[in-house]
Amino acid sequence: MESTIDGRIIRIDVAQDSAEHVLGRVRETLSRNAHFARHWREISCHFEDGVLTLRGCVPSFYLKQVLQAALMDVPGVERLDNQVDVVSSAGLSSVRPR
């Protein structure tokens, strides 16, 4: 990954990021997001080999997309596997049979 600071290109080796470090960035990102600031602990995150897997429940498809968009640019995350289920009080659900 490359980043530009004051016109200089800085190379960042995100492959060196540990899962714990990336998950810390994920928690920080969610805790600062207005939609998830109080509920980020309800989302389970697993990081391995550049893939961030999300699990949990949210009340709308909109929030599922907001969650995904908020985490797509976390350094170290190459791919996002959004397995979050949508379960609303109106009876709509995306819960998959287990």
What does this 3D model show about the protein?
With 98 residues, the protein is an alpha/beta fold. The protein has one domain: Histidine-containing Protein, Chain: A (2-Layer Sandwich). It has two helices and seven strands, in the order E-E-H-E-E-E-H-E-E. The chain has a three-stranded mixed beta sheet, covered by helices on one side. A two-stranded antiparallel ribbon has the order 1-2. It has a two-stranded parallel sheet with strand order 5-7. The protein is globular, with a radius of gyration of 15 Å. The relative contact order is 0.18. The mean pLDDT is 80.
Reconstruct the topology from this structure.
Blueprint (H helix, E strand, L loop, with lengths): L1 E4 L2 E4 L7 H14 L11 E5 L2 E5 L1 E2 L2 H11 L7 E4 L2 E2 L12
Summarize the structure in short.
This protein has 2 helices and 7 strands. It is α/β, with parallel strands linked by helices and 98 residues long.
Key traits:
98 residues; 7 strands; alpha/beta; Histidine-containing Protein, Chain: A; 2 helices; 26% helix; three-stranded mixed beta sheet; globular
Sheet with most strands: 3 strands, mixed
Helix content: 25-40%
Which runs of at least 5 residues are low in confidence (pLDDT < 50)?
Answer: none
Radius of gyration: 15 Å
List SSEs in N-to-C order: EEHEEEHEE
Task: Based on Cα principal axes, name the global outline.
Answer: globular
Distance between the termini: 37 Å
> Which architecture does the CATH hierarchy give at level 2?
2-Layer Sandwich
SS field, number of helical segments:
2
